[in-house]
Amino acid sequence: MAGDREFYFRRLHSLLGVIPVGLFLTQHLVVNHFATGGEESFNKAAHFMESLPFRIFLEIFVIFLPLIFHAVYGLYIAFTGNNNTNKFGYFRNWMFLLQRISGVITLIFVSWHVWETRIAAALGEDVNFQMMEKILSNPAMFWFYLIGVISTTFHFANGLWSFFVSWGITVSPRSQLISTYITLIIFIALSIVGIRAITAFV
Questions:
Q1: 195 near 149, Cβ under 8 Å?
Q2: Neighbouring C-beta atoms of residue 73, cutoff 10 Å
Q3: Which helix (H) or strand (E) covers residue 139, if one does?
Q4: From CA 124, how far away is CA 109, in angstroms rounded?
Q5: Are 100 and 78 in contact (CB under 8 A)?
Q6: Helix, strand or coil, per DSSP, at residue 54
Q7: Three-state SS for 52?
Q8: Alpha helices in 51-138 (DSSP H)
Q9: Which of the ends of the chain has fewer CB neighbours closer than 10 A, N or C?
């Protein structure tokens, strides 16, 4: 019984990491990328997202609750999983270890980012270009955001590979190799989008 529960929890954890959390990550990076078009471009995109109908409902039930479950159960997996990198130095074993490490880094980064933006917005501050410009003017925060974004995009892309396997989408070694290249491209593409957005605020 406990084994069945853990199986379904892991499947749900994997699913929520892609839908809706992964989709939200992609959308969030794309909106931030509007900063490359200047202050007005970003502010328009940010204010459009803030004016969506049922925004509070969507943020709670489509973003934050799935994210909290994914993060909490992810920590359980990270600290109870067996890493075989010392015994089996295969590529996927290293990806398994890096997935756990990037998950912890991502959780710290996302928690801080939510505190600096969403909580600040709830207290009356505007989430706009000036806010991010002020945050990233601190060199330590700039590197923190840079590492955080790269960690987050890696965690999503590598998690997407695991999602394909655990849900039976990629079964054969060839299909898994192809998905490795696809998820690598996704990681690089999203990282470029995220890095360009960060540098646009500086």
A1: yes
A2: 18
A3: helix 139-166
A4: 22
A5: yes
A6: coil
A7: coil
A8: 55-58, 65-80, 91-114, 120-122, 129-136
A9: N
Return phi, psi of residue 83, to 5°.
Answer: -95, 130
Q: Would you give per-residue pLDDT tens digits along the chain (202 residues)?
A: 566 888 899 999 999 999 999 999 999 999 999 999 999 999 999 999 988 888 889 999 999 999 999 999 999 988 887 655 555 558 888 998 999 999 999 999 999 999 999 888 888 888 899 999 999 999 999 999 999 999 999 999 999 999 999 999 999 999 999 999 999 999 999 999 999 999 999 9
CA 22 to chain centre: 6
- As a whole number of angstroms, the distance between CA 8 and CA 195 comes to 35
Place of tokens 């925004």: 55
* Spatial distance between the Cα atoms of 158 and 98, rounded to a whole number of angstroms: 9
Contact present, 41 and 83 (Cβ < 8 Å): no
The two tokens of residue 33 are: 């990328």
Domains of the chain and any CATH numbers: 2-201 (1.20.1300.10)
